């Protein structure tokens, strides 16, 4: 890897609910590893407007697990962002299909965020406009995917980095 960070991008629709929560959880998990490889976890949306804050309920749901999203600003998923991403994880198969159609070269490192979870649907429903309980359920669904996602990352994306 020559010291360059592995860029992991998490994708949803507007980049104000699911992908910021997922990116925060994944970043926190990787930072907690004994000897993490150089990495950057980013998020973006297929229909995002640059500069929007994370939704209020996303901020509250993540605050309950000690992760701060107050400074998050949404970003549009761009060809440049896709090109520099080593791995991309989407919330739904629709997001994944859109990227596959527009950027077929992204291939092997394009997956659903929950694809490697031990149980449950690989899809992450959008909690936008829902109650705090819906956001907490979404956050917990994302959190449940982290162990399988870490296994995948260490086996396939940075296999020589596991201590």
From TrEMBL:
Its EC number is 3.1.3.48. This is protein-tyrosine-phosphatase. Gene3D superfamilies: 3.40.50.2300. The keyword Hydrolase applies. Keywords: Hydrolase, Protein phosphatase. Residues 6-152 form the Phosphotyrosine protein phosphatase I domain. Belongs to the low molecular weight phosphotyrosine protein phosphatase family. It comes from the Bacteria. GO terms for molecular function: protein tyrosine phosphatase activity. The keyword Glycosyltransferase does not apply. It catalyses: O-phospho-L-tyrosyl-[protein] + H2O = L-tyrosyl-[protein] + phosphate. It is an enzyme of class 3 (hydrolase). The active site is at residues 12, 18, 126. Transmembrane segments: none annotated.
